Amino acid sequence: MTAMPDVSRGEAVVAALVAELGEKTVLSGAERPARNASDWSTLGPQAPLAVIRPATTEAVAAAMRICARHGVPVVPQGGLTGLCGGARPLPGSVALSLERMTGIEAIDPASATMTVRAGTPLQVVQEAADAAGFLVPLDLGARGSCAIGGNASTNAGGNRVIRYGMTREMILGLEVVLPDGSVVTNLNRMIKNNAGYDLKHLFIGSEGTLGIITRLVLRLFPKPACTFAALCALPDYASVVGLLTAARRGLGPMLSAFEVMWPDYWETVSSMPGVRVPLAQGHAAYCLIEAQGTDEAFDGPRFEAWLEAQTEAGLLADAVLSRSVADVKAFWGVRDACSEFPQVLGTHESFDIGLPVAGMDDYVRACKAALGQRLPGITALFYGHIGDGNLHIVAGVKGAHPQPKDVIQEVVYGLVREFGGTVSAEHGIGLTKKPWLGHVRSEAEIALMRRLKAALDPDGMLNPGKVLPGKDLPGKTLPSEILPGDAV
Q: Where among 278, 309, 338 does a domain terminate?
């Protein structure tokens, strides 16, 4: 059910926001940008009462105080590249976009840190680190559009988690605006700092439901001097697990990515224009291995010798080794071809799940069989960051409008629960996954999440209706949207 917005309250809060922040910061009516009505999810647009575009932390705090006083909820927005509806406005809400809060404030070479404003695109952060001789290892396909604050609020993963960890491991300090408008600033630049609770972890991965991240201190890493890659064909999934174990042992800290693609994925991208596929079809699995080193003359031969040893051990049916940076990019082009699936496959459902690595192929087989039984003729492709237990699924019935989403989700998430996985590995919960949160989180865990929400946001004003199934706060009616199948 959807609560009807209070028109007079909406008009009052917009007037108060304009009076405090100005018409250039607060856009309402016909001035509201269409892009702020949704994110990259398939939920469709929902126009907010107004779009606030503050340029300072103080303006964010002022906006929160005004909205809290009028009882109007606020939905934080970064680059709007989320896939789960976490940044999509709700009826009767105000959208607070951090798009103007951009820029690198400081790079400290001695402590290897960067202080950056939350609305800064990830690619800008990467390029600034590179120019200073460092690396920000977080990397994902939406790098040119996603904002670093949004990456933190969803605890983004990306391609190199196996070496550097999730976004959480790259953050030393945060500045956060709480739901009541108070500001907590802890721009810590020290790796070792055990002075009380490490409060930043409350907000990293909380999807804007507990506070609005406005500034961050990021750890910087040494910039690799060289990068190598190999595309491998494997005879079975046991060889995939064996190769991953060998890569961890033999390559050590050089190992930066371990991506696996199942045969249906490989066959699909092989037919796509502009994608160079250097290995033949017909193998049980395909793996992209990337290693980053500090000395090309030493690490290059080391990587090649390691790959030859795996062939001799019988783990590889075929392999091709990069000989240039262009080869590395071309290999990644095979893995990143999934971004073109909407044009190739038409409408479909996409999934981001996590599973224990050893049982991942068993899950794939069970999922393909169950989907085929429930929906004959369905296309289901499997691929992902297997080195960190993250599997992506693309599934759709060709020509079906709309897609049988409920059936597909029931199969995919039902088997996730059966195999002891997670419904979200790196994209968050937002709106679309909250009906399934109970599949992978216990009642006690969800109850604790509710207690944290109630403690930090007792009036339920910050991104209500997201993440937690049903109502955010027991007994409280919020202008939230409850999805079909959600328990109120």
A: 338
